[in-house]
Amino acid sequence: MVKLLVAWRYLLPLGMVLGLYILPTPAGLSDLAWLYFSVFMGMVLGMILEPIPASLVAVISIVVCVVLRIGPSTQHVSAGAAITWGLSGFANKTVWLVFIAFMLGLGYEKSGLGRRIALWLIRLLGKTTLGLGYAVALADLVLAPFIPSNSARSGGILYPIVSNIPPLVGSFPDKEPHKIGTYLIWTGLATTCITSSMFFTALAPNLLAMESAFKSHGIEISWVGWFLAFLPAGITLFLLTPYLAYKVCKPTLKGSKDACIWAKQELNKMGTMGQKEYLMLGLSVFTLILWIGGKHLNIQATTTALLSMVLMVLFGIIKWKDVVSNHAAFNIFFLFGGLITLASGLKSVGFLEYIGHLAQSSMTHLGLSGTTMVCVLIAGFYLSHYLFASVTAHVSALLVLFMSMGAGVMGVELKELALLLMLTLGIMGILTPYGTGPSLVWYGSNYIKSAEFWKYGLLFGLLNLSLFLSLCVPWIKFIAFRWLG
């Protein structure tokens, strides 16, 4: 039975490709575009089911398109043009930025700076359970702008620290989980979803989404513009989430000095800040300054990241073998490189233009205002995340499609819509136990049972969406949009 289920995970994506392609080509769409779309949807289903690693699914899809000589144009191209297109994503600056971001996260881990920051905040704020929740949130907030992988930041740095706290006060997954464990685990995940939307460089799919928006519609938002756009919802949700989790999860332990004592002991074991930590701290500030002011200094974000990686190696914070042996970074490199190429093909073959015209025709008859239509599109994009086991897969499958649906609809500004869709990528991760990279890590602690997780996910997910629509939509439309370029 198990073997049969595993076999179906392999066969369903292939069945999706063949099943779609044998259907009649929709009127107004070329046979080549329909073939490409069939392959693309097979890729999306393969990434959702993951019978093999998602990065391999993306590479196989590129190989299929290159062999069939589809993707770069509305017509079949030469073999040389096909392979040039197939490899183009791996030379993309955003793909390299994501790859190097993993090295920055590795620098925090190797130097010990990330662990020290988290422990220091727990020691400072951990005298009460609520204070401990805010300490966890602040630790994530401090690290978020510098570590674009929330899996590395939240699952790799914060989770090992936070998971050590509940046992200190007798809270275990199978014994008094609600004493403090459930609250801290949920707060750790819920706040990393907020910070992942707060900063452009806090979530790897943010960078993929921006590149997809640029490739499909020429839309690009600055680091500062992104931060300002999410600011009203970001501040509100960040301050509210630990408190709301405190009320919903209802920890029975209201205060304890054990966490502070433990954090102090761990800090004492670490000793005073070492040279590598000081170097990493200085390099982080240097990197952030260039990311924020790079546009005025004529320094591209990927150039800044590449410079930072080289300096980390030269200063001895990480070793070159750490770079070339980082399996997670190379896995993301192949995944994002493939996805950026494949997403660009939807436009090249004319599929996005077809969907755009179709959606515009349908939406025009609804008679909704531009703002209402934007909210409907955002809500649909956000809630559809229930169907995806990864934010990356969600971006690849739906972002450009939803942008095309809104393009040209009266009253809808495409740049506003694109930005609003992208800003939801972090906060939507709270919906399910598989919604974002670190979800499985926090869920795997077993402090939160499955039924509880789905209930909390729905509650916090709807809160995130409601506050985002009520605060960020008018903020971007009427106040801050002139700063977003």
TrEMBL record:
Keywords: Membrane, Transmembrane, Transmembrane helix
Organism in which the protein naturally occurs: Helicobacter baculiformis
Topological relation to the membrane, as annotated: Multi-pass membrane protein
Name of protein: DASS family sodium-coupled anion symporter
Main location per the UniProt record: membrane
Top-level taxon of origin: Bacteria
A family per Pfam: Na_sulph_symp
Location in or out of the cell: Membrane
Family designation: Belongs to the SLC13A/DASS transporter (TC 2.A.47) family. DIT1 subfamily.
Transmembrane segment boundaries: 7-27, 33-49, 54-71, 83-108, 183-209, 221-246, 278-294, 301-320, 332-354, 366-385, 391-410, 417-436, 456-476
